[in-house]
Automatic annotation (TrEMBL):
The gene is LSM1. The keyword Calcium does not apply. It is found in: Cytoplasm; Cytoplasm, P-body. Residues 11-86 form the Sm domain. GO terms for cellular component: Lsm1-7-Pat1 complex; P-body; ribonucleoprotein complex. This is U6 snRNA-associated Sm-like protein LSm1. Component of the heptameric LSM1-LSM7 complex that forms a seven-membered ring structure with a donut shape. It comes from the Eukaryota. Belongs to the snRNP Sm proteins family. GO terms for biological process: deadenylation-dependent decapping of nuclear-transcribed mRNA; mRNA processing; RNA splicing. PROSITE patterns: SM. Its main location: cytoplasm. Plays a role in the degradation of histone mRNAs, the only eukaryotic mRNAs that are not polyadenylated. Probably also part of an LSm subunits-containing complex involved in the general process of mRNA degradation. Component of the cytoplasmic LSM1-LSM7 complex which is involved in mRNA degradation. GO terms for molecular function: mRNA binding.
Length: 138
């Protein structure tokens, strides 16, 4: 962090100054993952990304959808990090079509539901309550 006294770290939007003009990954509250070049930000950590792509993952495959210029409200950012371009090229993930990723996500979701049903039956047999809504998990 150039320009800051040693040992002093800032958790405000001022710490984003080193990220301008670099490729970032931004994870949003709704789970979307955006990759783009940070062009601007403000005191609320609202971000402007250029050449943005949204990546959707399933297992060891992913697809990406171009989004162009993307403005992100700071309160929706869960995680933000710089992308190391050398390591990104060596990723073990395989780029594929959006249809293939969506089908794989559907299979993963169905397998997870089956696993959850088996777990709930086992817990219920032991006397535990498994009554909850989807929104209770967050």
């Amino acid at each position: 962090m150039d320009g800051f006294p040693p040992g002093q770290f800032f958790t405000t939007s001022a710490s984003l100054v080193d990220c301008v003009d670099k490729k970032l990954v931004v994870v949003l509250r709704d789970g979307r993952k955006l990759f783009g070049v940070l062009r601007s930000y403000d005191q609320f950590a609202n971000l402007v990304l250029q050449d943005t792509v949204e990546r959707i993952y399933a297992g060891n495959i992913y697809a990406q959808e171009p989004r162009g210029i993307y403005v992100i409200r700071g309160e929706n950012v869960v995680l933000l990090g710089e992308v190391c371009l050398e390591i990104e090229d060596e990723t073990p993930l395989r780029l594929t079509s959006m249809e293939e990723v969506l089908q794989a996500q559907k299979r993963e979701r169905e397998a997870r539901l089956q696993r959850d049903k088996r777990r709930d039956r086992a817990l219920h047999a032991l006397g535990f309550s498994v009554d909850f809504a989807e929104t209770d998990l967050y």
